[in-house]
Design brief:
827 residues; alpha+beta; 7-stranded antiparallel beta sheet; 3-stranded antiparallel beta sheet; 20 strands
């Protein structure tokens, strides 16, 4: 057997200069090398990764952008009407070469917009509006490679510059407007203190966009410990980042002359692609959709044009993948007739928005950065994949409780080939059929006791649904169904068996099946953040949709994510769960994930095999009430989703009681119980849905048509919820400012007070924040007030960044670049 064959046998590849890799250590050996104390020791719990004072956190937030303005002033409708695509559609419709219905729908999109809201539109304004510094930033961002200024401009640089009335104008996505606005704030203040300029420049690359929507990622990572309020600390960082985004958008509307030119940018948190964007997608080609909505990646990437090409690849692959899902539905027996609605060749799932919450372990990172520890990347992979498999059993606790994406589906939407999204690629056929049957039973699709699904022609399905009173369904978190959330393993390539390279092998298998592309990142609900790639070792939770409250929902979710991750390490360290206890067969993987997806849909029950080989799942189900033998599926147990969640809470109290006490999470567990027992009042989906229904004056989602409910949700997110998030951020800002600059405050040397005086002159900071708060919330603050407030936010962020770096020095003073508290969490 050759060396390469031996390496492949162990699931690894040769690495330059390291020679042959040896067989990975056993889990017991890894636990010992990590310095975890024996289970009988009094320090066992404290020595676990993600236990007391060991956890760091950061987040990445995807937001929604709209431009409010007349059709004649706004970039999106102008671009469509001036495009060759639109001209060709008109010509072909007039010549009878294509249906006039396509042209009618496109013209309806352009002309029937009473709210004047254009989702994900770009903006356009005069180049002279920018300060000299902002202009230089813009020119730098047009480079093909920002590390090579001599390499010339991007080949598409002319997309972003045009002339109007003999004057140079620029057109850019709203996502790029935010860092450019920050650059203008910095460049327009004569004599700006060094601390403000340095801080602002460091933050520029934290505003990016690699899909469709604006994204921001943590300005610094935070320590999750009882003294900092645990998850409340990462919620504070996220809230202040959100507030800075709002201030920069308001500044651009005023100072960069957007409002003077008939445009207003609004950025907010929203989980779904907007209704009107979906409708536009139905009447344009996939290539034109990419031209309109795929980000050019001007900020956040050294080679933005290459990153833009990657995102176009993702859109093409997911569009093809959705088409291939139709064949799977036929193979599964879900599509039983020849009349189907083919999904649009342009898939819109990349316009879904969520929050990714990453946790890092100081202990893991330190050991992996210290060669003398004996802990290697292969050990991290073996351990990490098992942690992921354990945590996935607990993820149903998060769905709808802490984040949600409430969505209303009408009867005519219930074509399995569209409503099931990417589930055919995420679940095996058995669980897919079970979910579809239960979903139809849950939804209002019955005539004389028989479930019906739409037939195909839109006009017929609409009439049929009205005639028989078929209303469809309400889904608590439709984003998790509409987005490709997790790749299912193949028989030959398990994705979580602990071997090096298993993700690449799985992607290769799925590429050959037309499901995925090996160039794309691995999609998982809970993803390992490997030290060799990220500079820290930890896990990223990608299952969060929309938080109704950053303080209450996001903060508590971070607490629970920390707890279940630490519990997974406890199970492993005690030898209670190994890879053999959670086999890597696709059917076993699908069995546990169906519970998560069923919770997102709102299905009340699920089925597992009575003789399932998943030992952890058997343990959980034994704690569930109301379990019975299935009459429809012999050999299966019928389990209530709500009882499953309650059993998980019991297990947390029993198996992680010491962790709950040590981390100070007693209030979090009480809050979780309230969310499960009284979801209408306390859960994220309950609070969001109640607010949306108030807007349409209804008491149930089923009393409102789908389009009306979903557009009301968008309006709520854009107005009241956006204001709520800003108010939370103001609360954090005021407390930070009081600690830094209030009476008796200390620790703000290094130019902080001088910079504050520069921003406010003789005004007191707390008085200024109180005076300007309502003006900001009402969007009536003056440019001078906005500049001063942005400066204050920058100062508090810099203070937080300095504390973060000081912490990193205390943890690993000789190697701080390789520790989770120093490196950004963004991939």
């Amino acid at each position: 057997m050759s060396k390469l064959e031996k390496l492949e046998l162990w699931g690894r590849r040769p690495s330059g200069g390291e020679g042959l890799w040896e067989k990975p250590h056993s889990l017991g050996e890894i636990v010992e090398r990590l310095g975890i104390e024996p289970a009988s020791s009094g320090r066992f719990t404290e020595s676990l990764p993600f236990s007391l004072n060991d956890t760091t956190a950061g987040s990445e937030t995807e937001l929604q952008a709209v431009v409010i303005g007349d059709k004649k002033d706004t970039d999106l409708p102008i671009t469509i009407e001036r495009s060759n695509y639109y001209a060709n559609i008109i010509r072909r419709a007039v010549a009878g070469e294509t249906s006039k219905r396509v042209l009618t729908r496109l013209e309806s999109y352009l002309n029937n917009n009473p709210d004047r809201i254009w989702e994900n539109s770009w903006v356009r304004f005069p180049m002279r509006s920018l300060s000299d510094f902002a202009g230089r930033v813009f020119e730098h961002d047009l480079l093909a490679d920002k590390k090579d200024p001599e390499g010339g401009l991007r080949t598409d640089a002319d997309r972003f510059i045009f002339r109007r009335h003999g004057e140079k104008w620029i057109r850019i996505p709203a996502s790029y407007l935010i860092p450019l606005s920050l650059a203008d704030v910095l460049g327009s203040q004569a004599g700006i203190p060094t601390i403000l300029m340095e801080t602002g420049r460091r933050l520029l690359d934290h505003f990016s966009n690699d899909n469709t929507s604006p994204e921001t990622f943590s300005f610094h990572v935070v320590r999750l410990c009882p003294g900092s309020g645990m998850g409340r600390a990462v919620a504070k960082e996220t809230a202040k980042r959100f507030l800075l985004t709002q201030l920069l958008a308001m500044y651009a509307n005023s100072v960069l002359r957007l409002r003077a030119n008939g445009q207003q940018v609004v950025i907010y948190a929203a989980p779904h692609p907007p209704v009107r964007q979906r409708e536009l997608n139905e009447c344009i080609s996939d290539a034109f959709y990419r031209e309109l909505f795929m980000s050019p990646c001007l900020s956040g990437w050294d080679e933005g044009e290459k990153k833009h090409g990657y995102m176009c690849l993702c859109h093409q692959v997911l569009s093809r993948s959705q088409m291939n899902a139709v064949a799977k539905l036929r193979e599964a027996g879900i599509i039983t007739r020849d009349l189907v609605i083919l999904p649009n060749m342009s898939n819109i799932s990349l316009a879904n928005n969520g929050t990714h919450l990453s946790l890092g372990s100081i202990r893991l990172s330190r050991c992996l950065g210290d060669k003398s520890s004996g802990v290697t990347g292969r050990d991290e992979k073996l351990l990490g994949d098992l942690v992921i498999k354990i945590v996935e059993h607990f993820l149903p606790l998060f769905v709808g409780t802490y984040s949600a994406a409430p969505y209303r589906l009408d009867f005519r939407d219930f074509h399995p080939e569209s409503v099931l999204g990417f589930l055919p690629h995420e679940l095996d056929y058995t669980h897919l059929r079970m979910i579809w049957r239960r979903w139809k039973n849950k939804a209002d699709l019955k005539i004389f006791g028989h479930s019906m699904t739409p037939f195909g022609p839109e006009w017929f399905d609409r009439t049929f649904g009205v005639l028989f009173g078929l209303k469809g369904d309400f889904v608590p978190d439709f984003r998790l169904i509409d987005y490709f959330a997790a790749l299912m393993s193949t028989d030959r390539s398990p994705g979580l068996d602990g071997s090096i390279g298993n993700g690449d092998r799985l992607k290769q298998d799925l590429s050959e099946l037309g499901v995925f592309d090996r160039k794309m990142s691995l999609y998982l609900l809970y993803r390992l953040r490997e030290f060799g790639t990220m500079g820290f070792s930890g896990f990223e939770g990608r299952h969060y949709s929309l938080f109704e409250s950053l303080t209450d929902d996001m903060g508590r979710a971070a607490d629970l994510q920390t707890l279940v991750t630490a519990l997974a390490f406890k199970y492993i360290a005690r030898g209670e769960i190994t890879h053999a206890h959670i086999p890597d067969a696709p059917s076993i993987e699908s069995e546990r994930r169906q519970i998560f997806f069923g919770a997102a849909i709102g299905i009340p029950t699920f089925f597992i095999r009575k003789d399932t080989s998943n030992v952890l799942l058997r343990k959980i189900v034994r704690r569930c009430d109301k379990v019975r033998q299935s009459g429809r599926y012999p050999g299966y147990l019928r389990v209530c989703n709500q009882e499953y969640r309650k059993a998980l809470v019991e297990i947390l109290h029993d198996d992680a009681g010491d962790l709950i006490e040590m981390l100070g999470l007693g209030k979090t567990m009480e809050d979780l119980a309230l969310r499960l027992d009284r979801p209408e009042e306390h859960s994220a989906v309950g609070k969001l849905t109640h607010s949306i229904l108030d807007r349409v004056n209804a008491h149930s989602p089923m009393k409102v048509r789908g389009r009306e409910f979903n557009q009301a949700a968008e309006m709520h997110y854009r107005t009241a919820l956006r204001r709520r998030h800003m108010e939370e951020a103001f609360d954090f800002l005021e407390k930070d400012a009081a600690c830094m600059f209030g009476p008796g405050s200390t620790g703000t040397g290094g130019g902080f007070r001088e910079a504050l005086h520069f921003a406010l002159k003789e005004r007191g900071v707390l008085e200024f924040l109180l005076a300007v708060r309502d003006d900001v919330l009402e969007e009536t603050a003056s440019p001078e007030e906005l500049k001063a407030l942005i400066d204050i936010v920058l100062l508090t962020v810099r203070h937080d960044m300095d504390l973060s770096e000081k912490t990193s020095d205390e943890i690993a003073p000789d190697d701080k670049d390789r520790t989770s508290v120093y490196r950004a969490v963004h991939a």
